[in-house]
Design a protein that fits this description.
By secondary structure, this protein is an alpha+beta fold. It contains 10 helices and 20 strands.
């Protein structure tokens, strides 16, 4: 992780001597060490990671890119570090602290000018947005675990099981096969509930003719996967099939648009045009995708409002959907890694319409 710390230190503007990393996600990104408490001070002359007695032994054995000190009193240790490092102006993760936390640091460091603008957040985002080969490998391993769960759930779904049972079965399978955590609360919604993009699994039982949408993921070494598949039970109507095929074509169109130098809004537009052409434009109510990494939602974002451009190393989801309120919905989601001249699909699960036996 030393290279990440050095990269951030090199980005520090002339008027600031240091940056303070306080969020759990960014502490892990820069140190490689997971912890629920601590701070990381980054300077041009070196970095210091402070963490408490619960983690100190493990941190000293795991963190190699910076100094590691036991955190006993932040109010005493942080001002001492500022003095020792000659810090007069400090960048703070403004987007990841509350107003009260920022005020606490101001009171703690009366002789230091605290920069609570977007500067540090923008620097960190610029580093995290492109994934290394190691990061990509972690995400791919997490995705393989999620896909194994998908294979299992196809044998589990049948009329009479509930949405909640499907969600629990997916989660149990992922955790039983190496997932260290779940990427987010699993979505498993069926029938009329599938028209809600972020519906919550309930005790509703699966019936013949239902679409079941499952959105879920696994975490491996701190990195998330994210996939969505919609399957049917017993039979589908002509309209259900038409909607499914439209979403699939929209997703393939967006995937085909992915390459370095393409605007994120253009990739979103590729999916949206397919859906609009079939008359379902008003039924697609969210962006086409987002970055994935240490957090489940990262930069860049594939949406109509995005001003970002795709670049090598980006990992984005591609997840268009059509939702007919009170009737049914369909969403299909893959993760794509941007290469030098296109993309690599990190998701291998089948996407052709699956109709399970009833």
């Amino acid at each position: 992780m030393k290279d990440r710390l050095e990269a951030l230190a090199a980005m520090l503007p002339p008027q600031a001597e240091a940056a303070l990393i306080v969020s759990e996600e960014n502490r892990r990104y820069f140190t490689g060490f997971p912890s629920s408490a601590g701070v990381l001070l980054v300077t041009r002359a070196g970095s210091v990671f402070l963490t408490d007695s619960r983690y100190i032994e493990a941190a000293r054995g795991a963190v190699t890119g910076c100094e590691v000190e036991e955190l006993t009193s932040l109010a005493q240790q942080l001002p001492a570090l500022m003095k020792a490092k000659g810090v007069k102006r400090l960048l703070l993760e403004a987007g990841r602290v509350t107003l009260s936390q920022a005020e606490r640091y101001r009171r703690m460091l009366p002789g230091v000018a605290l920069d609570t603008g977007d500067t540090l957040d923008e620097y960190v985002d610029a580093l995290r947005i492109a994934k290394s080969g190691e990061e990509k490998a972690c995400i791919a391993r997490a995705q393989r675990i999620a896909e194994q769960a998908f294979e299992h759930i196809l044998t589990f779904i049948r009329p009479g099981v509930t949405e909640r049972e499907i969600a629990l079965a997916l989660e149990y399978d992922m955790l039983s096969h190496g997932a260290q955590a779940l990427s987010f609360e699993t979505i498993a919604v069926a029938g009329v509930h599938s028209s809600m993009p972020h519906g919550v699994p309930s005790d509703t039982k699966i019936s013949r003719g239902d679409f079941i949408t499952m959105d879920y993921g696994a975490v491996v070494d701190g990195y998330h996967s994210d996939m969505t598949r919609t399957v049917a039970v017993g039979e589908v109507s002509e309209e259900q099939r038409r909607v499914y095929e439209t979403v699939l074509r929209a997703q393939e169109a967006a995937l085909s648009a992915l390459r370095p130098g393409v605007a994120c809004a253009q990739a979103d537009r590729a999916a949206r045009e397919v859906i609009e052409a079939e008359g379902y434009g008003d039924c697609y109510r969210h962006g086409t995708g987002h970055g994935v990494g240490i957090e489940i939602h990262e930069q860049p974002v594939l949406s109509p409002a995005s001003t970002q451009m795709l670049a090598p190393g980006h990992i984005v989801t591609v997840e268009p959907g059509i939702y007919l309120p009170g009737r049914f919905g369909v969403r299909i989601e893959d993760m794509a890694f941007l290469t030098q001249d296109g993309y690599e699909n990190l998701t291998r699960a089948p996407k052709a319409l699956i109709v399970l036996p009833a």
